[in-house]
Structures are given as structure tokens and as C-alpha cells.
User: Which sequence fits this backbone?
């Protein structure tokens, strides 16, 4: 017979379970209402937004409920209403987000009094249009902002109303010359930004229809010829560059035919436009096109591709000259500090004091160029001893932070954008010990991408197992061992592909840790005899690693064992890599090959993966590693293993 005390205990337990179940059900209902509120605002449905907001009076994240409620009628909201929100949530990520929204609206209305009051309070200050409005406000007060505007206005597709208005005001106040405006027209043409090109050419009394045709229908514009006026010449030159994307030969013929009508500088601009497109496809005549572009005012991309062409040709003198001519901000980029040092060392046949000073200026960076520079100074990659682990009290302090609690709530809701914003906002104000504790807290909550992000911000007490984690090694180690794959390389690729987010999904449909495409998954499954494969299996850790590692192994074999080529092929596709490799007539230093790959995304990807792999190898093997040795050289297809080894040895 059950005792009375046991019966009472059981009843209390059952009641507690029922209460918890009811509360859990209520929480789910509130979460659903919050997601519907967010969706209503995104669809600009104010009535539904108010309906769902009214049901969230006690929601776990009140600041976001209030944010979406305000955003649903933002353009009609009073300044008092917005200021009240900012006061209530001052110091939070969502308050800074709302201030960003408001600054855009204030700039659009030209309410400079309120704009000037709020702009210094915008913490992240990472919005291009807000930056343009800031200069526009200063310009309205008679300040000279031309130099700052030239440095800022380099990406026409993202200009929007604010930057367009700034260009118009700079023209009207004569702070921008006609040449400044023509530079903007050319840049817009180069970047396929028809709207900004049309707006700017009107300021020059040119034909917006002709510049639009040059960008959108370049073959038609070329057929009409260069014309007679300045704006017709400029539109023609834009068309030369645009048409070269599909046919360099056609553009060359059209430019040569028009040469008698063009000034020397216009001819140089035409050749620079062709040279840029030729660089993207590694055309054999690229160097000659750049030679003929001498005297042209170059865009940021043109400067960089002229430099890459010089390094591919081994023309170190031209590389130095090109870097020296770059704008100061570009010249100060670690990429060009490193390559300037390489060019100087090649010309001097050794590392002079000036060269060593350049290497030292970037050698403490823990990225691709920092590691390469450090090796030139005799320092290979090694893993420092970690500092003291975080205490339970330090981790508890992180867990108690409302910002981190909001982040975890958003991650639970699968709102990764909002969760990441909240997490990053909190991380920016932490000291070293707090960063270590936050990284460990992320690990404990299985948010490995934020663990990596947080750990990378430590400087003195870095824990490299947080920076370079190796989850699922019970699956990875036997898989790579069976295939004979370098485990450090595979983890280096995963760290770049997904940051260890198992349910990561790319815009093109790649899934899981190793971001395997469904078509690739089916193909690899068939190759290795996995007969029961279905697409949903790509989000299973074991299957994702099995298929991804086998695909890496297949690509590596097709690229003659070169990790550099295989990494690039994993990102850009084996077909493109075969095409890029076919341009080689002799072995090439892998750093040069990587730097001159046509796709920005693939260049960055390979640099990051190979850097990651070097750190992982140092962790796994417990000894210093050489990034340069891992990169080696890239050879044309058909080199024997012995020839590759001889080439690698002779390049050291």
C-alpha cells in the first residue's frame, strides 16, 4: 500500500510537471507570436504587427517586441516616441539598430539638427548611407569634405539616396571637379551600377540614356562608335569594359577602331577597362593591355589587378611601382604591405632592413599575411600555452548578462542573425578574462561559431582549442585515417565553410558542416556505394563528414595532391580550377597563384583554409608549422611527383 507521504510527493511532482508543461506550451505560443510579429513587420503589415505585439506583453525579449511595434509605423512615428525607446533601451544592440534606422530617416528628411545630435551616439557606425549623410550634413554647414568623400565613395551599387545626394551636393558646391564625377561614372560602369551612373552623368550634362545603354547593352553602344563629345567618349569607354566581360576580342577591335577620336588619356582608360576583364580570365595578353593603360586614372580594382598581373609575370619592379601609385588606404592594407616587401626583397635579392621593417609591421597579425610575414622573420606557427581556464563564477557572470541571454533565446528560435548581433554586441565590451569565459559559455551551449569569434578576440590569454575546435573527432579521425587525408586540412576547411554550425545552409543549397551540395552528395554517395542516400542525410553529422571528406579526397586526387588547388576547387568547382591551372606554363609559387585567382571569394577562402590548417596541424602535432611549406608551389597539369618535389625543393 502506498504511504500518504509518498502519495503527496507524487501528487506534487505530477502538479509540477503539468505546470511546467503548461508553461512550456505558453512559451511556444509566445515564440510563435513573436515570429509572426517579426514577419508582419517585414511584410509591412502594421495591423497584424500590432495584433501580435499585443499578445506579447510579458515576452522574454521585450525590447524586440517594442522595436518591431515601432518599426511597423516608423515613418509616422514621432521623435518623442523614438527617443523614448532609445532612452529605455540605451546601450543595447537593438537601440543602436533603431538609431541606425532613424539616422537614415533623418538624413532622408535633411533634419540635420536631430541627425547631428544622434549620429555621435551611433556606436557601430557601419552604414555607408549614414556616413554619406554625415558628410552631407557637414557640407551643408560649409565644411570641405571632398577628400573624405573620395575615400568613402568606392562602391556605387550600395550608394542609395544618401550617397547619391552627397555626390550631387559636392558637384553643386564645386568640391567635386568634373574629373571626380567622371571617375564616379566609370566606377559605376565597372560595377554594373546603372542607376548611380545615370544620376552622376546628368550632373555633367551628359546623356543618361547613353550611359545606361553602355552598361546594359554594351555591344549596341560599341556598334555606334565613340561619338564626338566628352560624354559620348566616356560612355563608349564604359561599354568597352562592359563588352569585354563577354568578348575581349570584340572590345579590343572596337577600341582600336576608335583610337583616332580619343585623347591619349581616354585611350589609356579604354585599355585599363579591357585589362581588368582580361585579368579576370587570365588572358595571355593581359600584361600588354596593362602596359597600354599607362596614364589612366585607375579604380581600386584596377590598381589591384594591375599589381597581380605584375606579380604573375614576376615583374617585381612594376609591382613596386603599382603599389606605390595606389591610394594610401589601399597601400596600407596588409595584402599590399606584404607584396611590397616581397617585391623589394626580390629586387634587392634579400631581406633588407627596409623589407624586414615592412614584415615586422604585420607579423603579429594571426591571419594569412601575418603568418607569411612572420615566417620571413624566422617565426613559424606555434601554439602558446593557454591562460588559466575560466572559473564557474566567471562563466556564471556571462550567463547572467541580459545580452547573452537574448542571444541564446534567438539561437533557440533559429534566428541566427539576431542571435549573432546580440552576441557580438556583448563581446565588444569584454576584457580578456571575460572573453575566455564567454567563449567557454558558447562551447557549453554548443554555439561553436560564436565560441570561435569570441576566442579570436583574445590577445594575451588565447585558448586555441576555442579558436580551432575539433568537434566530432570520433567520426573525423577514423574517416581521414582511412582515406589518408590530412585531418588538419579537413578541419581547416570546415572551420571556413560552416564555423561548425551543423544546420548551416548556404544560399545555393549547400548543407551541414562541410557544406555539401545535394548534387555532390548524390554523386559521392554513388561513388562510395552509399545506396540509401537521401538529401536529408546531409544534415546528419556522420553522413556529412563521410561525404564531404570523400569528396575532398577525390578533388585532391584530381589536383595531383595539391591542397591549394583542391581547396580552391572545393569552393569554385573543379572545372574552374582546371581552367585557371591550364594558364600555367611553368611552376608558380602558390602565394602568387592564390593571389591571382580571379574570384575574390575563392582567394579569401583558400587563404583562410590554409591558415586554419596550419594552426590545426600545430595543435594536433604539438610542434611549430610552416604555412609556406604547406602552400608549396602550383605546377601545370602533368608534372610527375618527382618533378613537383624538385620544384618545391628549389623554391625554398
Assistant:
Amino acid at each position: 500500500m502506498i504511504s500518504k507521504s509518498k502519495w503527496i510527493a507524487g501528487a506534487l511532482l505530477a502538479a509540477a510537471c503539468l505546470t511546467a508543461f503548461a508553461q512550456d506550451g505558453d512559451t511556444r505560443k509566445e515564440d510563435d507570436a513573436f515570429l509572426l510579429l517579426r514577419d508582419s513587420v517585414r511584410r509591412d503589415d502594421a495591423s497584424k504587427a500590432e495584433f501580435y505585439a499585443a499578445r506579447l506583453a510579458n515576452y522574454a525579449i521585450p525590447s524586440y517586441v517594442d522595436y518591431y511595434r515601432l518599426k511597423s509605423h516608423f515613418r509616422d512615428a514621432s521623435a518623442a516616441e523614438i527617443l523614448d525607446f532609445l532612452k529605455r533601451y540605451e546601450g543595447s544592440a537593438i537601440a543602436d539598430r533603431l538609431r541606425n534606422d532613424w539616422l537614415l530617416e533623418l538624413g532622408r528628411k535633411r533634419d540635420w539638427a536631430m541627425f547631428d545630435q544622434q549620429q555621435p551616439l551611433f556606436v557601430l557606425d557601419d552604414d555607408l548611407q549614414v556616413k554619406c549623410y554625415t558628410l552631407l550634413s557637414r557640407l551643408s554647414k560649409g565644411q570641405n569634405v571632398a577628400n573624405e568623400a573620395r575615400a568613402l565613395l568606392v562602391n556605387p551599387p550600395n550608394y542609395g539616396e544618401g550617397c547619391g545626394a552627397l555626390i550631387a551636393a559636392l558637384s553643386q558646391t564645386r568640391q567635386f571637379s568634373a574629373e571626380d564625377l567622371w571617375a564616379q561614372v566609370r566606377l559605376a560602369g565597372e560595377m554594373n551600377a546603372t542607376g548611380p551612373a545615370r544620376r552622376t552623368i546628368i550632373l555633367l550634362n551628359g546623356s543618361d540614356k547613353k550611359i545606361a545603354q553602355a552598361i546594359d547593352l554594351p555591344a549596341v553602344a560599341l556598334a555606334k562608335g565613340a561619338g564626338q563629345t566628352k560624354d559620348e567618349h566616356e560612355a563608349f569607354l564604359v561599354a568597352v569594359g562592359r563588352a569585354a566581360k563577354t568578348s575581349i576580342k570584340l572590345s579590343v577591335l572596337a577600341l582600336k577602331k576608335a583610337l583616332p577620336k580619343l585623347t591619349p588619356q581616354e585611350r589609356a582608360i579604354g585599355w585599363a577597362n579591357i585589362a581588368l576583364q582580361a585579368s579576370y580570365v587570365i588572358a595571355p595578353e593581359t600584361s600588354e593591355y596593362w602596359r597600354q593603360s599607362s596614364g589612366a586614372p585607375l579604380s581600386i580594382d584596377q590598381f589591384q589587378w594591375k599589381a597581380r598581373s605584375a606579380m604573375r609575370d614576376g615583374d617585381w619592379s612594376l609591382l613596386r611601382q603599382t603599389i606605390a601609385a595606389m591610394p594610401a588606404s589601399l597601400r596600407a592594407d596588409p595584402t599590399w604591405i606584404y607584396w611590397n616587401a616581397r617585391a623589394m626583397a626580390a629586387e634587392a635579392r634579400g631581406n633588407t632592413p627596409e623589407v624586414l621593417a615592412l614584415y615586422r609591421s604585420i607579423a603579429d597579425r594571426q591571419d594569412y599575411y601575418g603568418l607569411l610575414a612572420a615566417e620571413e622573420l624566422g617565426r613559424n606557427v606555434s601554439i602558446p600555452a593557454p591562460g588559466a581556464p575560466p572559473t564557474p563564477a566567471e562563466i556564471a557572470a556571462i550567463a547572467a548578462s541580459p545580452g547573452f541571454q537574448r542571444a541564446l533565446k534567438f539561437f533557440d528560435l533559429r534566428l541566427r542573425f539576431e542571435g549573432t548581433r546580440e552576441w557580438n554586441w556583448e563581446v565588444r565590451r569584454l576584457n580578456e578574462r571575460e572573453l575566455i569565459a564567454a567563449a567557454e559559455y558558447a562551447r557549453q551551449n554548443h554555439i561553436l561559431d560564436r565560441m570561435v569569434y569570441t576566442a579570436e578576440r583574445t590577445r594575451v590569454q588565447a585558448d586555441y582549442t576555442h579558436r580551432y575546435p575539433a568537434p566530432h573527432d570520433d567520426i573525423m579521425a577514423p574517416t581521414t585515417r582511412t582515406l589518408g587525408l590530412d585531418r588538419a586540412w579537413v578541419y581547416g576547411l570546415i572551420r571556413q565553410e560552416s564555423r561548425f554550425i551543423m544546420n548551416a545552409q548556404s544560399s545555393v543549397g549547400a548543407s551541414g558542416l562541410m557544406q555539401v551540395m545535394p548534387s555532390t552528395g548524390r554523386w559521392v554517395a554513388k561513388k562510395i556505394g552509399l545506396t540509401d542516400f537521401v538529401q536529408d542525410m546531409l544534415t546528419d553529422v556522420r553522413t556529412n563528414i563521410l561525404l564531404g571528406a570523400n569528396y575532398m579526397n577525390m578533388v585532391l586526387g584530381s589536383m595531383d595532391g595539391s591542397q591549394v588547388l583542391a581547396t580552391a576547387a572545393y569552393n569554385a568547382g573543379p572545372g574552374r580550377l582546371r581552367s585557371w591551372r591550364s594558364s600555367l606554363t611553368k611552376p608558380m609559387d602558390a602565394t602568387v597563384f592564390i593571389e591571382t585567382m580571379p574570384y575574390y571569394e575563392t582567394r579569401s577562402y583558400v587563404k583562410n583554409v590554409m591558415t586554419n590548417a596550419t594552426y590545426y596541424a600545430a595543435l594536433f602535432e604539438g610542434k611549430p608549422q610552416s604555412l609556406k611549406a604547406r602552400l608549396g608551389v602550383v605546377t601545370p597539369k602533368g608534372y610527375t611527383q618527382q618533378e613537383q618535389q624538385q620544384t618545391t625543393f628549389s623554391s625554398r
